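Sat 14:20. Reprocessing the chain from the morning session after the first attempt stalled halfway. Input below, unchanged.
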Amino acid sequence: MSIIIFGDVHGYTKQYQKYLRQNLDPSQRTIQIGDMGLGFAGVGLHPMAENHKFFRGNHDSPAKCRAHKNYLGDYGYLELDGIFYLAGARSIDRAYRTEGVSWWADEELSYEELGKAIDLYKQVKPRFVLSHEAPAIAGKVLLHSQLGPYFTAKLACSMSRTAEAMQQMLDIHQPEKWIFGHYHLHEEFFAPGYTTRFIVVGGQMDGMDVPKTYELKT
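Finished this time. Tokens:
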């Protein structure tokens, strides 16, 4: 059994849904891991079959995501697949955005919600993790070899409460794979001292691009 994991869509929902219709078997399960773009002007997402799910990133309206029939949730555990998932991240450019239009104050889970998520993670000790953000160590390792002001600024993400909470999870239990988006890169790597394979899915999708994906075999 496999699940196709989709990286950041950034509002190109028509291309995303066209890809689902034209390139995948109707029974194929998929999970999109944040930054669908819901909440931004002109961005919509038609209801989909139940085998297609998504959760939010930092470039999504939390309320609009939660109202969508295909929203997976802010965090949780898919027991049959051994998958733990966690939504949200911090926007490094929030100072230049407009609240309620291009930025949402609750883009990250609260400390209380993250605490509950950590408790669940500790209990289930998942085989796989899906998230928008990455654990602090993974973000730092990923960005260490990248050049340019964007990636330098992106290092601040590793200090967010979301990244720190995920780091606590990783130190409690190292899953087989940890799959995330958010960084606009597409590669696999390991972090020193950890056995988990980290997989960042995506890249900056544009209108002429097909979605970036990863096939997770459960």
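The beta strands are 2-6, 29-33, 52-55, 75-78, 83-86, 128-131, 177-180, 187-189, 197-200, 213-217.
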